[in-house]
Write a structure and sequence with these properties.
α1 (2-22) runs antiparallel to α3, α3 (38-60) runs antiparallel to α6 and α4 runs antiparallel to α5. The chain is rod-shaped, with a radius of gyration of 30 Å. The protein contains ten helices and four strands; from the N terminus they run ααααααβααβαββα. The chain has 286 residues and is an alpha+beta fold. It has helices spanning 2-22, 24-28, 38-60, 66-86, 105-123, 133-166, 209-213, 215-222, 238-244, 270-281, and strands at residues 198-204, 227-233, 251-255, 261-266. It has a four-stranded mixed beta sheet. The protein folds into two domains: 2-166, no CATH class; 187-281, 3-Layer(aba) Sandwich (Glutaredoxin).
């Protein structure tokens, strides 16, 4: 009985280790089940590793009721693999023991067999602890749960770090054939009153949801004494749109006091809008 319990716990722990060792390829294998978002896949991947590792440790320690929990988890895996196989996904990565595992009836049968094994461990009389063993089992289970939670937190923290590196801030999109010519002079400067060091023309549209979302950022820039900001609506200021060949909204054009176009581009964040101002004020190389 004890040998079966330790053997099943070892298999479960090996599955958790295989997933953790596979890393990104293990997370990407979850696409086979329709999990498209990188954060969703990372959360499912980390949670599965934590569950398998925690249950393996608790089963090996003889904690109460964990064999039933492990049997339920493996039954869910078996059902998921069976459904994926029926959908014609055989041969796709399943992530069961790492990146090399594949969806198919063998994988579904393996998960079902493991579920049956844990069920057998759970219902055999000598598995049930008695007396103080219940207290010890509860303590082991609590420690295993804390360890599993730690693994999940570390895995998610690593994934978030990778996503932040992958999604770096981008500058505003400036294309030569769109908008006014850089270095040219436009009469739009006459619409500005304060003659600040920089004039910032913001082109918006009535039905532009992004323009409305950026309104707090525009109000923030309006408080900058070095910048005079003015909005130009696509309908109310159609002449300004036409004269500068604005491709769409939201769009920004930075002008010098004499009307020279210093920077231009499409933006969708405060960072990108500030990148236009930074481009307009950077020193000209000789």
């Amino acid at each position: 009985m004890g040998l079966l319990r330790f053997a099943l716990a070892g298999v479960l722990l090996a599955a958790a280790a295989g997933k953790a060792r596979a890393g990104r390829s293990g997370r990407d294998a979850l696409r086979s089940y329709g999990l498209g978002g990188a954060r969703v896949r990372a959360a499912v991947w980390a949670t599965t590793i934590a569950l398998e590792a925690g249950l393996a440790i608790a089963v090996a320690a003889g904690a109460p009721w964990v064999a039933e929990a492990a049997a339920g988890l493996l039954a869910v895996f078996a059902l998921t693999l069976a459904v994926a196989t029926l959908r014609g996904l055989s041969g796709q990565p399943c992530g069961c023991f790492g990146s090399r595992s594949r969806i198919g009836w063998p994988a579904a049968g393996r998960a079902a067999l493991l579920a049956a094994g844990f069920t057998a461990v759970a219902i055999l009389p000598d598995y049930r602890p008695s007396g103080d063993a219940w207290l010890a089992g509860g303590l082991v289970l609590a420690l295993a749960g804390l360890g599993a939670l730690g693994i999940a937190v570390l895995a998610l923290a690593r994934e978030l770090g990778e996503l932040r590196l992958a999604v770096a801030p981008q500058a505003a999109l400036s294309l030569d054939h769109e908008g006014p010519e850089l270095g040219g002079r436009v009469g739009l400067i006459e619409r500005f009153e304060r003659r600040a060091p920089l004039a910032l023309a913001i082109f918006t549209s009535p039905g532009c949801h992004l323009c409305a979302a950026l309104e707090p950022s525009l109000r923030l820039l309006e408080n900058d004494p070095e910048v005079e900001l003015r909005r130009f609506d696509e309908e109310a200021d159609a002449d300004a749109w036409a004269s500068l060949a604005v491709p769409g909204s939201p769009y920004g054009v930075v002008l010098a006091p004499d009307g020279e176009v210093l920077a231009k581009g499409t933006f969708n964040s405060l960072y990108q809008l500030e990148s236009l101002l930074a481009h307009a004020t950077r020193p000209v190389r000789a």
